[in-house]
Each structure stands twice: as C-alpha cells, then as structure tokens.
Amino acid sequence: MKLYYSPGACSLSPHIVAREAGLPIQLVLVGRDKQLPDGRDFRTINPNGYVPALELDDGTVLTEGPAIVQYLADQVPELGLAPPNGSIQRYQLQSWLNFITTELHKTFSPLFNPKTPDAFKTMTREKLTDRFSFVNEQLGKDGRRYLTGETFTVADAYLFVILRWAGAMGFELTRWPAITRFIADVAARPAVDSALDAEKLKKAA
C-alpha cells in the first residue's frame, strides 16, 4: 500500500494507524506544488489534490482520512483500533470521527489561510476553544484514557493530529488538563513516535 502524505498534515492520522496496525506502507511525499517524487501530478491520484490518499496493491485509491483509518483498522480487527462493524461502539467511533472532521479539522482551515480577515480568525478561534472545552470534558469523564474508553482507536490518532495543530497555532492547551494528559499519552505510544520520526516532526509543536 502507498500512503500519499504531507508532513504534519491530516495524513499523519492514517500514518499513525498503519504503524499501530503493523501494516507495511510506502510513504509517498506530496509536494506543496502537488508534484510527486516521480514527477507526476498528485491530482492524478486524488483529483481534489489533498492528502491523504491510500493506494491499495490492486490500484484502488481511497481518499478521506476517516474512511482510510477505518479501512486500515479493519485489516487487523483483533487489535481493536476500530470496534466491529455493526456494533454500537462502531457507530460511536464514527460519531467521533465525524465530529473531529467537521467541528475541528475543517474549522482550522481559515486559520491556515493568510487571506482570512482577522475578525473571522478571531471567531474561528473562539469556536475551536468551545470545541476543545467539550473534548476536554469528554476525556475527563469516568477517568477514561481515550475518546471511547481505555482502548486507543483511530479516532484518537485523528484527534492527536488536530491537537498538534492547535499547539502550533498558539492555543494554550494546558488550560485543558484532560487534553494535556491525552497528548502526552498518545505521543508516548511507540507507533506514534515512529510516525513522527518518519515525518521529521519530533521537534515540531
């Protein structure tokens, strides 16, 4: 399998999951100009032009991070990176993946755009602050270690990536103790450390 990625982008989530699952993947760097190392245009892989994309051995291409991480998890169901399909726990996992995608991931977009007016960036940061407070509350329930309980799942990998962005964008994450603990716990996982090292991110925010 080939994972098309950009260092530190949302493609870090399936990268972490692949390493957690012990699945061999070939990392293919996508340049800012959408060029691949072999000179091809990445848009021949994903017409939308953004990472991640996962190319299977038969040539099938999967896009969109939440779909990719579930596919990877389902290759090794015994690891519990995603609950069984059809279970209520799987739907709860998907609820978290959708929340992270729509309420956190996409909400960050204006902050990365230099053309976004300052007033709109302020509104965006206020919304994200509210959402982080919600996540902190959920992580603090019942002494749970991860989003769905004591088991690390693909949703935790995704959340970890987004929280790294928050730190890089100047959010004072220490105001949320459950989030601070979560970041430290996830960062200490060997597969996560390995993924960060492979993307040369271990010294990044």
In short:
The protein is of the alpha+beta class.
Features:
8 helices; Glutathione S-transferase Yfyf (Class Pi), Chain A, domain 2; 49% helix; 205 residues; single chain; 2 domains; alpha+beta; Glutaredoxin
Structure, described:
- It is globular and about 45 Å long.
- It has 2 domains: 2-78 and 193-198, 3-Layer(aba) Sandwich (Glutaredoxin); 82-188, Glutathione S-transferase Yfyf (Class Pi), Chain A, domain 2.
- The two termini are 29 Å apart.
- It is of the alpha+beta class.
- Strand 3 and strand 4 form a beta hairpin.
- It has helices at residues 12-21, 65-75, 88-105, 109-112, 118-139, 154-168, 177-187, 190-198; strands spanning 2-5, 26-29, 53-55, 61-63.
Read across the widest sheet, the strand sequence of neighbours is 2-1-3-4
The poorly predicted ranges are none
The tally of beta strands, per DSSP, is 4
CATH hierarchy class name of the largest domain: Mainly Alpha
| SSE order | EHEEEHHHHHHH
Strand content: 5-15%
Radius of gyration: 17 Å
End-to-end distance, in Å? 29 Å
Rounded mean pLDDT score: 96
- Annotation field: number of helices: 8
Give the SSE layout.
Elements: E1 2-5, H1 12-21, E2 26-29, E3 53-55, E4 61-63, H2 65-75, H3 88-105, H4 109-112, H5 118-139, H6 154-168, H7 177-187, H8 190-198
Parallel strand pairs: 1-2
Antiparallel strand pairs: 1-3, 3-4
Helix pairs in contact: 1-2, 1-6, 1-8, 3-6, 5-7, 6-7
